[in-house]
Each structure stands twice: as structure tokens, then as C-alpha cells.
Amino acid sequence: VQLQASGGGLVQPGGSLRLSCAASGFTFSNYAMAWIRQAPGKGLERVSSINTGGVSRSYADSIAGRFTISRDNDQNTLYLQMNSLKPEDTAVYYCAAAKWASREVAAYDYWGQGTQVTVSS
After folding, report:
1. Distance from C-alpha of 117 to C-alpha of 108, rounded to nearest angstrom
2. Could you give the 3-state DSSP secondary structure of residue 115?
3. Contact 98, 32 (CB under 8 A)
4. Is the distance from CB of 62 to CB of 45 less than 8 angstroms?
5. Arithmetic mean of pLDDT over the chain
6. Taking the CA atoms of the chain, what radius of gyration do you get in angstroms?
7. DSSP string covering 5-74, please?
8. Which candidate in 7, 50, 82, 86 could, as Cys together with 19 as Cys, close a disulfide (CB 3.0–4.6 Å)?
């Protein structure tokens, strides 16, 4: 199983980034996916999750209305469109896979290596 996250970087407050997560080594379309982040000195936070078909999506209150999760099962890729970024969004962002979509970080079995997002002027 491999999950390769990319697309992070340095962005000014109010800016946008699009994260991608390329999956391989398992049947991507059979797994729910999530973006999970860890800010400096803080614990893991499930940002958003999406079910296998991409129809059911959920978001943490902290990012609702600003971020959009999506997936392309033909391309085995997960996305996170992040708009109106704030300094408090600064974190390492991980993509993760589970058999069922969950708000619980512990539910996710497979994790990528993470991509750094820094929001600063």
C-alpha cells in the first residue's frame, strides 16, 4: 500500500492550495479516504473524509465551507481543495484510507507520508 501526498507549500493568508494523494497497491475504490492534519505541537485532527463512491463527505467544523474533498476512482487519486487559508491551517497534511469513512483518526489503517502546508505572510 502506498499513499503519496503532494501539493503542500507556503501560501499567504486567504490563499488557496490543492493537495493530491496518489494511491497504489490496493483497490482504491473499495476504501473510504480522509485528510488528517497535525499542527505544530498539537495532536492529529481529521479534516475531512469521503466514502468509497465520493458521494458522502464530512468536514471538521474548523474548515467547513473552506475546504472541499473529492476523489477520482479512475485515477486512484484523492484531492483536498483548500481556500481562504488561515495561519491556523498550518500543519502536515496526511491522506489515509479505511474500509469505512469515520471521524475517528484511529479508524484509518493506511497513511501517506504527509505534505507540509504553511500559511504565513
Report:
1. 21
2. strand
3. yes
4. yes
5. 97
6. 13
7. EE--EEE-TT--EEEEEEEESS-GGGSEEEEEEE-TTS-EEEEEEE-TTS--EEE-TTTTTTEEEEEETT
8. 7
- Which residue type sits at 10? L
C-alpha cell at 37: 492534519
d(CA 41, CA 47): 17
Place of cell 468536514: 59
| Cα–Cα nearest to 8, from 121, 120, 115, 119 | 115
Q: How far is CA 79 from CA 33, 43, 113, 121, in A?
A: 10, 22, 15, 25
Return the number of other C-beta atoms located less than 10 Å from residue 109's C-beta: 12
**pLDDT tens column, 17-70:** 999 999 999 999 999 999 999 999 999 999 999 999 999 999 999 998 999 999
Q: How far apart are CA 75 and CA 25, in angstroms?
A: 13
